[in-house]
Predict the 3D structure of the following.
Amino acid sequence: MKQHVSAALALTALLLGACATAPAAKHPSAEALQLHDEIAGLDRAMFDAFNAHDAAKLGTYFDDSLEFYHDAGGLSGKAESVASLSRMFVQNNGIRRDLVPGSLHVYPIKDYGAIEVGAHRFCHQENGKDDCGVFQFVQIWQKKDGNWKITRVVSYDH
């Protein structure tokens, strides 16, 4: 019995020590909050175009140098991506994208732009029922001459 109590006390002391040395949570700066809000707004506007099935408008968010990496679909550029979206929207299966609440994180890239990381839920109708999935994404935004464009997308966990 003494061994169990001693082991429990040792474990408690170890855990308390680990908690005491854990780094304090970061508080985002005003600049970080502003960047987060700016990218979150761009994400909303871009996917409003997606949900409206407007491939042309959606394409305006992509830089001409876009590289879109999709774990199931491979690598595509801007023209291929916009064409693929157009084909998908023609199917008119009601596809919709919603950002998973609380999943969006934004990190600055010095002298370039920002990294957007998150999860989103896509739903469409199949055989009269909603078919939905949650997938992960990373988007690299570049700010040039005051304008934001996506230069890289990584879509995974399909």
